[in-house]
Recover the amino acids of this structure.
């Protein structure tokens, strides 16, 4: 392949063929192995112009590997890629992009210290001889962003943008290369409701322009709004491809997990006590949240709902000592709490599971066992600080079994495991710490249905043991399905504390958007 | 070759090149593979090894220590000046070690409290320590330190000497020099610390992901400070041993030693981005450098060519190591 940056013109021979039923892109019998693990076994996929094609499967089913083969980041061991009727080989993602196949990653690939425009046209900058043509760079970027209907200045520096805005920049970047195939990996996982709507408008626009979109998501509820066809993968094999209208989400889920799932949420076995475990009053941190007060009872699951940036995560981090609050008091079991660092908080029995597991939840170069014991290494060591390896392995094995972590051994490097399994390791780390209060920040983000169900079951079990659980979540069904009460955040304040059984999705949204009357109705 | 074999091959690349070097040099020069020369090489390697052990700990936390060459000079001259001033040798050397540890502590505090990048913090210390060493000695060497000062660097254990029939002493076994003994003890001790203790585990965790470590309750500041203090302390020890071996304290001693130490760690597989590294690797790395120097010397290769070869070896081994970690 040559490295044109101009859109590739379809070969002449191709123009003579009937185009109507010719798929834009076809993958045939793709096989890919890593060491001894077979990631893809004889997988096929067809993409038509102007369709949104959902790709579903549990973590480790092979979705990401297949997409990396399609976008040139990996080369298949066997099988072929037929693009516009021609068998093609992409030796790099640059190759694939030049042909018109672009991928938007779940973990965004932007250079944080460059501007939006510079990122969109990175390595393809318009030039005046030796120098960058800044005027054109900004004009082109503005045009590109306008097409998406987003108000981001092309001169804005990327690290000052929110995650959602960065995602939009990634999409703009893909569009700027005139992509005919666009792969989106969990594009909505960090977007708010309204931003998701905006994204879907853009997707509809792209469909009309004839772009084929592969859409990977774990949020089956949002597929109905945009998806035309859906392909399910399981254990590296193709299971089914259907018109979305001809199938149901239940069928899709069944094919993904290979068994039927009757319930999305396990039944709650725990009932909250009336004993107040932790009480927070007047907690403030400049620029993040102000005057936050709430109570957490023993054995209760309290939801933190609200839009991203409304202060949910910030409050949890402040109580945990990761960022110190400016004012306010926290009492645990009636005793005032002095927390200057996460160390102090952990010693007092407070744990916080970060929403960004790779960024600050896991040491990915270390092993499963080392990560599990990291927050409580004294418990697997003798008084002199020598680690008892047998005990450490036994502890890790216990959580591997009880949480169903899929790993070859306790000595496996965490980097090589899938997202859901990594999340379970973070959870195991805190379970091993025997905490009294557990903050779960988006514990099910980016993980599959089966693992989600297991984590919900675990939350319930923890609450039944008398632990106070705080579930921070952007997914309202999760809040409604799992919590006893829900504190709704708006613009750095708690706008309402609602009894989950007596509330509805609409009421929570109402308070989250700041339109609700500020009347707290506690049970 | 399967991927597993490739991995094994690359894992032992450093050890393999060490054995290959030994083989080549012993074929080229008959005198290379002898007990006497072995002890010479081991003795020459000790400085790089002490410093390399400290460097490994610092690099595992994701830092770097450029100041050890200067610290060793300062510690050495402080020890010598104390002895000159009438202090007993152990007291003088203890003073040298304390100076080294203090310099390391300042490095650590600059990194943890002032949040300076390790490169800058230790670059500053490199200039300050060297400057102080030159200033307090007027840039002159301190000699006439006496036999007891020379004992640590020149004595050895299990030296077997027979008095021959002609009345002259006959050395049947040169003994194991104290610096070599010390190197073995240190390597084993720090290796145990890194592999078997929670402190060692936390060093790796800080280098692998310091934010995750902090949120898991690891005392990131304390752990980082420990690494720099250890590196400074080992630099102080290197200074004492080196000056004792020469029976002279030179304020300009140890120039560029920090780079040898970092090279030894890196050849041994320590990752400059933190979280990965072993003491055994670093000791192998130190020996690769030491044997190259010794063997090339015996082969009559000029010092300039030696530099070129060692530079190339560093590039080659690190490249192989990169291949191993690339996915």
């Amino acid at each position: 392949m040559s490295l044109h940056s101009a859109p590739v013109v379809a070969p002449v021979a191709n123009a003579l063929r009937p185009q109507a039923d010719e798929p834009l892109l076809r993958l045939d019998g793709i096989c890919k192995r890593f060491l001894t693990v077979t990631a893809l076994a004889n997988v096929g996929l067809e993409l038509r112009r102007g369709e949104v094609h959902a790709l579903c499967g549990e973590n480790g089913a092979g979705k990401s590997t297949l997409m990396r083969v399609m976008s040139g980041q990996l080369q298949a061991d066997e099988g072929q890629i037929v693009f516009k009727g021609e068998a093609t080989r992409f030796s790099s993602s640059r190759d694939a992009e030049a042909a018109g196949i672009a991928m938007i990653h779940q973990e965004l690939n932007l250079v944080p210290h460059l501007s939006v425009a510079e990122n969109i046209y990175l390595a393809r900058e318009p030039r005046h001889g030796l120098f960058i043509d800044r005027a054109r760079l900004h004009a082109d970027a503005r045009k590109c962003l306008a097409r998406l209907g987003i108000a981001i200045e092309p001169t804005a520096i990327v690290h000052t943008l929110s995650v959602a805005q960065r995602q939009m920049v990634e999409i703009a970047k893909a569009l700027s290369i005139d992509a005919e195939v666009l792969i989106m990996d969990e594009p909505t996982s960090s977007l708010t409701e309204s931003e998701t709507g905006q994204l879907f408008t853009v997707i509809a626009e792209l469909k009309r322009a004839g772009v084929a979109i592969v859409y990977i998501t774990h949020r089956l509820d949002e597929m109905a709004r945009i998806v035309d066809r859906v392909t399910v993968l399981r254990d590296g094999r193709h299971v089914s491809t259907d018109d979305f209208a001809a199938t149901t989400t239940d069928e899709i889920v069944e094919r993904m997990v290979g068994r039927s799932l009757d319930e999305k949420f396990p039944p709650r076995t725990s009932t909250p006590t009336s004993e107040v475990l932790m009480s927070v009053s007047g907690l403030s941190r400049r620029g993040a949240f102000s005057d936050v007060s709430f109570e957490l009872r023993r054995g209760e699951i309290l939801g933190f709902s609200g839009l991203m940036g409304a202060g949910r995560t910030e409050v949890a981090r402040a109580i945990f000592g990761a960022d110190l609050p400016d004012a306010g008091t926290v009492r645990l079991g009636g005793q005032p709490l002095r927390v200057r660092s996460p160390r102090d908080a952990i010693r007092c029995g407070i744990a916080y599971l970060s929403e960004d597991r790779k960024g600050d939840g896991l040491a990915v170069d270390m092993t499963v066992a080392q990560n599990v014991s990291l927050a409580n290494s004294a418990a697997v060591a003798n008084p002199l600080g020598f680690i008892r390896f047998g005990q450490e392995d036994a502890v890790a094995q216990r959580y591997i079994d009880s949480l169903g972590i899929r790993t070859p051994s306790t000595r496996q490097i965490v980097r090589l495991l899938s997202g859901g399994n990594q999340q379970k390791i973070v959870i195991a780390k805190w379970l091993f710490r025997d905490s009294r209060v557990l903050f779960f920040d988006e514990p099910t983000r980016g993980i599959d249905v089966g693992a989600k169900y297991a984590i919900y079951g675990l939350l319930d079990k923890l609450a039944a043991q008398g632990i106070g659980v705080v579930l921070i979540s952007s997914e309202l069904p999760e809040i409604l399905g799992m919590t006893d009460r829900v504190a709704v955040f708006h613009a750095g304040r708690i706008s309402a504390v609602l009894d989950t059984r007596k509330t509805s999705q609409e009421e929570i949204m109402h308070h989250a958007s700041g339109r609700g009357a500020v009347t707290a109705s506690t049970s | 070759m399967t991927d597993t074999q490739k991995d094994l091959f690359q894992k032992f690349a450093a050890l393999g090149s060490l054995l290959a070097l030994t083989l080549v040099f012993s074929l080229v020069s008959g005198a290379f593979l002898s007990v006497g020369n072995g002890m010479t090489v081991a003795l020459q390697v000790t400085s790089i090894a002490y410093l390399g052990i400290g460097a490994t700990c610092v690099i595992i936390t994701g830092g770097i220590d450029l100041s050890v060459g200067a610290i060793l000079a300062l510690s050495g001259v402080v020890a010598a000046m104390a002895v000159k001033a009438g202090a007993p040798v152990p007291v003088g050397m203890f003073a040298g070690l304390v100076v080294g540890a203090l310099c390391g502590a300042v490095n650590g505090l600059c990194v943890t409290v002032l949040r300076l990048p390790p490169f800058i913090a230790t670059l500053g210390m490199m200039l300050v320590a060297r400057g102080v060493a030159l200033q307090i000695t007027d840039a002159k060497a301190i000699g006439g330190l006496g036999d007891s000062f020379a004992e640590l660097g020149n004595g050895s254990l299990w030296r077997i000497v027979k008095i021959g029939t002609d009345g002259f002493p006959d050395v049947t076994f040169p003994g194991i020099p104290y610096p070599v003994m010390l190197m073995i003890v240190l390597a084993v001790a720090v290796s145990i610390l890194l592999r078997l203790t929670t402190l060692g585990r936390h060093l790796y965790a800080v280098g692998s992901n310091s934010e995750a470590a902090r949120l898991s309750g690891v005392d990131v500041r304390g752990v980082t400070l420990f690494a720099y203090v250890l590196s400074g302390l080992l630099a102080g020890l290197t200074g004492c041993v080196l000056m004792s071996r020469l029976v002279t304290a030179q304020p300009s001693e140890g120039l560029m030693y920090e780079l040898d130490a970092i090279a030894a760690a890196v050849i041994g597989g320590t990752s400059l981005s933190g979280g990965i590294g072993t003491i055994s690797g670093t000791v192998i790395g130190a020996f690769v450098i030491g044997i190259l120097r010794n063997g090339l010397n015996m082969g009559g290769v000029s010092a300039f060519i030696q530099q070129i070869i060692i530079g190339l070896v560093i590039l080659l081994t690190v490249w192989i190591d990169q291949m191993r970690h690339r996915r």
Notes: Residues 220-246 of chain B form the longest helix (27 residues). Chain B has a mean pLDDT of 89. The domain at 3-325 of chain B is CATH 1.10.3470 (ABC transporter involved in vitamin B12 uptake, BtuC). Chain B touches chain A through 23 residues (CB under 8 Å).
